[in-house]
Amino acid sequence: MKPGTKWLIAIIGLLAINMIAAIVLMVVANGSDQSRVLPSYKTEAR
Fold it and tell me: Would the pTM of this model clear 0.85, i.e. be above it?
């Protein structure tokens, strides 16, 4: 394999891994139907 081909495969692989990680994070973050807002958020934000 040529070095240029190895770099191309490595970059495409890294992009694919990042996309998979982003999808996993979205699924984990939205997995619960329950809201997780802090009860005193509005009073603390002022």
Answer: no
Structure confidence by residue, pLDDT tens digits, 4-46: 999 999 999 999 999 999 999 988 887 766 666 666 666 655 5
Q: How far apart are CA 6 and CA 44, in angstroms?
A: 52
Q: Which residue has the tokens 């009860």?
A: 39
CA dihedral 26, 28, 29, 35 (to 10 degrees): 140
